[in-house]
Write a structure and sequence with these properties.
Helix content is 45%, strand content 14%. The chain is an alpha/beta fold. The protein has a seven-stranded parallel β-sheet. α4 runs parallel beside α7 and α9 crosses α10. The relative contact order is 0.14. Bound molecules: coproporphyrinogen III. Coproporphyrinogen III binds next to β3.
Length: 329
């Protein structure tokens, strides 16, 4: 494999000197791109695209061909793990993801086993295929849901505002809840390590729902499980560091904790000020974010102005440490 032509993202994540602030965007491949909608219509569904290494490669490359981005992100979904565990995933119009067999009774929970990576080999095939297609232009990011965020969908069976089924189990049956978290830690660590072996050059852990927890429960169940995942990841591959990004949506109150679990970078939503967070974590980790995605609805002048504010809020970047992104997908 020839050396990366653009390694600005990897350098920024490791807080090494960079010529400019690198950019990638959560959900950079997706429905806003006409070429994505065309391929989705042809292939029939989102899951059909995600399951096919060839289609996933094509979709991953779409935004990279169109925009001057500093990274590609694997086209897939965080719900591949529970799907491979046999929970029966489908996407319903107007509802979003739905699991046919959620984990709602003791017997089902006790039977849960760490995911068989063989069932996710299509993801690793996509990673290798994307690396070939990128031919070292920009790095490829792999990703997974966090153990807690995956547990949310696995228990609730679908998206939710308050996750009451999840929280009832967490408070009333911590033994069952902890079993699910432990199985997810094993699964997420093995899945991310496999993505790294297949060629992912950095990885992001999406903790989309960690912010719904109390401080105590966040630390006990979300933060600690991400720390255990990161501890098990290979630090290097192909002679290069593989940076880890953790992104807890709504995690602004706990940035100091998030900066201390072994990740190289913390992703931030738009609710926090980059300059305040930078001070709070004393440059111990790189920061990623955090333009409010709603700004994109306001037209080019406002987008430019608000994007500039994000850069100014972080401050000087010659020492790396900032990756521009949206505050959410
Ligand atoms: O960022 C990227 O471009 C990489 C691809 C990616 C997708 N999903 C593609 C996708 C990533 C990283 C995800 C992660 C994901 N999936 C998360 C965490 C990310 C976050 O923003 O916090 C979550 C919670 C999911 C679960 C999921 N998948 C939901 C809630 C939905 C929306 C369902 C709907 O009806 O809109 C999806 C589907 C999905 N994942 C789409 C894409 C491009 C849309 C599929 C389509 O309709 O074409």
């Amino acid at each position: 494999m020839k050396p990366l032509m653009n390694d600005v993202l990897l350098r920024a994540l490791l807080r090494q000197p960079v010529p400019y602030t690198p950019v990638w965007l959560m959900r950079q491949a997706g429905r806003f791109l006409p070429e994505y909608r065309a391929l989705r219509a042809k292939s029939g569904s989102f899951l059909a695209m995600a399951h096919s290494p060839d289609l996933a490669t094509e979709v991953t490359l779409q935004p990279v061909e169109r925009f001057n981005l500093d990274a590609a992100i694997l086209f897939s979904d965080i719900l591949t793990i529970p799907e491979a565990m046999g929970l029966g995933l489908r996407f319903e119009n107007g509802v979003g993801p739905v699991f046919e067999k959620p984990l709602q009774d003791e017997k089902t929970v006790r039977m849960l086993q760490p995911v068989d990576l063989e069932k996710l080999s299509y993801v690793m095939d996509a990673v290798s295929s994307i690396r070939r297609a990128l031919s070292s232009r920009v790095p490829l990011l792999g990703f997974s849901g966090s153990p807690f965020t995956l547990a949310c969908y696995m228990i609730e069976g679908r998206g939710s505002r308050n996750w009451l089924t999840v929280k009832r189990m967490m408070y009333a049956r911590p033994d069952l809840f902890e079993h699910i978290i432990n199985v997810n830690v094993d699964s997420v660590a093995a899945y991310l390590a496999a993505q790294i072996s297949a060629g992912a050059q950095a990885v992001q852990i999406f903790d989309t729902w960690g912010g719904c927890l109390s401080a105590e429960m966040f630390r006990r169940y979300s933060l600690e499980s991400m720390r255990r995942v990161i501890e098990r990841l290979p630090k290097e591959h192909e002679g290069r560091r593989v940076p880890v990004i953790v992104f807890t949506k709504g995690g602004g109150l706990w940035v100091r904790d998030l900066a201390g679990i072994g990740a190289d970078a913390v992703g931030l939503d738009w609710c926090v000020s980059l300059s305040e967070v930078r001070k709070a974590v004393s440059d111990k980790v790189a920061l990623q974010g955090n333009l409010d995605p709603a700004v994109l609805l306001a037209g080019e002048t406002v987008v430019r102005q608000e994007a500039r504010k994000v850069l100014e809020s972080y401050g000087p970047v010659d020492g790396g440490g900032h990756v521009f992104n949206l505050g959410h997908g």
